[in-house]
Write a structure and sequence with these properties.
2 copies of one chain form a homodimer.
Chain A lengths: L5 E8 L10 H12 L12 E5 L3 H4 L5 H8 L7 E5 L4 H15 L4 E8 L6 H9 L14 H16 L3 H15 L13 H4 L4 E3 L2 E2 L9 E9 H7 L4 E10 L14 H14 L8 E3 L5 H10 L8 H6 L16 H5 L3 H16 L13 E8 L4 E9 L3
Parallel strand pairs in A: 2-3, 2-4, 9-10
Antiparallel strand pairs in A: 1-7, 1-8, 4-7, 5-6, 8-11, 10-11
């Protein structure tokens, strides 16, 4: 049965990138202000907050972020919890917000994702990110995330014939879409030749196959169907939600060319929404690496296993294709402030569904799917959303 | 309106203490097994998990704990998120579980709290714990938690005449109760003279005013009213739940002799349950320091502001008193593996309410309140629970 009542009534993100001089609490507050007062939702109406941050303990030496950030954002006193599931932290906060609304305990809640990553060295950030993998079996022996996704890429290449050029095309598309997104970290198109520059990070993944280290925040307001029209004429319903987990370490997986948690969470979300991949007009997926977008496009059922690369080659996933994926630019080119990402994905879907995506507007925009995962797909959250008037 | 449907049908904790040779995942799994298969709840019935851990990033160099721990505990695949709110992490996971059940999205879920703290030095653990305070305004200038609660103690002493001996009596009671609790870290009574040993940690708090650094885990199974009788003849209902936040740093507080988030969360939980302090047979409160128990006993409305110390002196909060507090021994003597604490508090209430607390059984056991906070009370969660047949 589709979710009874959860609607998104406002959504906003800060600029993503290296936000010099701005602290975590400042970035967080900017997103909150944009999604509340600036969007016509008084802060007094917010009853609870659900916050996604991945690893501020290591990045900014701060735990217990929820009350701290809320206080700074002018929301002191509210019930607020920090939700963490590595790169899926934002989407797990969103799911907690959904359950809060569906439970009837709250009418109107705020979901925020935020991360400040650039105040430490790249090495330190890489170490922090590695905490999303199994420390005993992976991180401690030197396997960090470019390596892990390099393994997935090699598997996909071997099993399906996917090429380095196919992956590079994902990067070209991401940069093209982000070039017209003023909040993106990289607002610059790149050529296929440039994307193929052989600066390997972890073979076969090259520099342009990897999402960057970023600062940023995103926020959305959820409310019940009853209250939604108070805030906007164009609410977006969340119809279905799914979440699944898998073994943290790759050695516990049956295969590496598909992430079982993505497949399971997608099925849950589609089943709950009583919809299928063919009903989706577009998708926002977790493209931490280009290969991750190709695999995700198959795992969410847009394409058969092994056919994701062909879809990119044929332009099917382009902004003007039949099944646009990451129409604003994705993690790859917009940036990946880890805790913010899952919430930012919902922001993108909201903007696209209500027709306010500007130069990045997809043509058909009734229904869409978001897919956010953590680690090497050890946690996956999928939501199916539809414009309330669609 | 009281919560519609959430019941606790099983609850268990591991031994708390310095659990040498046991890793976080092993401790976690032990608690899960005790609360599921050992308690007649098949693991196959669990649909989702809500996990509280405070700071495994710094204590065991591991983030993204939810899928990792679930996999090890034989629950791979389930949706699972880690919830963090410093020392209230466990209770925020519990609240997420409550919302999941109340939303109707899941029928049966697992809530687990766990922490492995003793594998690092005491200095490193103290640094990790300090991440629960505001790094900019408190931790970075050297104010760690014994200092923060020392300030609260001084304030209470100055305003109400509370004495070091009053605080020591809280420790004596805690150790007495824990002496018959086989899962406690300290199963040994102490004399008032010993509790007054002038080994100051942060004046006026002495060694025996402080809860220890501990390893441990606790788990409970929540299910809907409809399903509860499948698992036990003695389910416990959660009638009311509240959560509030306050400024992280003390300089943002109006007063230090009461924690405003505790007062607010208690009011929410009582109001939802349509009950009041006089309806509570006993309480389990967050006694990270002895002064914290005195303040909590006032904040939850058991005693008027400033009268908590007298209640301890008069034996009102003793196991056989009129308003027993922490009947199993509290954080002070049972131990405080941070993420586990909020869930362990629910375990204590469950055991007491169903009459299975052995030598620590309180006489009247229909209805009780649990109070778990994080930081210097910057997050507080309060739940009101009642035996389903009461």
């Amino acid at each position: 049965m589709p979710l009874k009542t959860t609607n998104i009534v406002s959504a906003a993100q800060t600029k993503f990138g290296k936000l010099d001089g701005l602290t975590l609490r400042e970035i967080f507050s900017e997103a909150v202000d944009k999604a509340t007062v600036d969007a016509g939702v008084p802060k007094e109406d917010i009853q609870a907050a659900f916050i996604g941050t991945f690893i501020p303990e290591m990045l900014v030496h701060q735990g217990h972020t929820a009350p701290l950030l809320l206080d700074y954002a002018g929301l002191k006193g509210l019930p607020a919890t920090r939700h963490e599931a590595a790169c899926a932290s934002g989407a797990t906060a969103l799911r907690a917000g959904i359950m809060a609304i569906e439970s009837g305990i709250y009418d109107t809640v705020l979901v925020v994702g935020a991360e400040k990553m650039t105040s430490v060295s790249t090495n330190k950030a890489t170490e922090a990110l590695a905490a999303a993998a199994d420390d005993t079996f992976e991180s401690s022996i030197g396997l960090t995330f470019p390596g892990v996704f390099g393994i997935a890429a090699v598997s996909h290449m071997q099993k399906y014939g996917t090429t380095e050029e196919d992956m590079a095309r994902v990067a070209v598309k991401a940069h093209k879409n982000a070039s017209t997104n003023p909040l993106a970290q990289f607002q610059k198109e790149i050529s296929l030749e440039k994307a193929m520059t052989p600066r390997y990070i972890a073979w076969p993944l090259k520099l342009f196959d990897c999402s960057p280290i970023s600062d940023g925040a995103a926020a959305i307001v959820l409310t019940s169907a009853e209250k939604a029209k108070q805030y906007t004429d164009t609410p977006v319903r969340i119809l279905g939600t799914g979440q699944a987990s898998a073994s943290m370490n790759l050695c516990g997986r049956k295969e590496l060319t598909s992430f079982e948690a993505s497949v399971a969470a997608s099925k849950q979300a589609y089943d709950m929404a009583k919809l299928s991949p063919k009903d989706m007009d577009f998708a926002v997926v977790h493209d931490c690496f280009t290969i991750a977008e190709i695999i995700a496009s198959e795992d969410i059922g847009f394409f058969k296993p092994g056919e994701g690369a062909k879809a990119v080659r044929d332009g099917v996933t382009a902004l003007d294709g039949d099944k646009p994926i990451n129409p604003m630019g994705g993690l790859k080119a917009v940036g990946h402030p880890v805790g913010a990402t899952g919430v930012k994905q919902a922001v993108v879907i909201y903007k696209e569904l209500i027709g306010e995506a500007g130069a990045n507007q997809v043509q058909n925009h009734d229904t869409a799917i978001m897919h956010n995962f953590g680690g090497t797909g050890a946690t996956c959250v999928v939501n199916v959303m539809r414009r309330a008037d669609a």
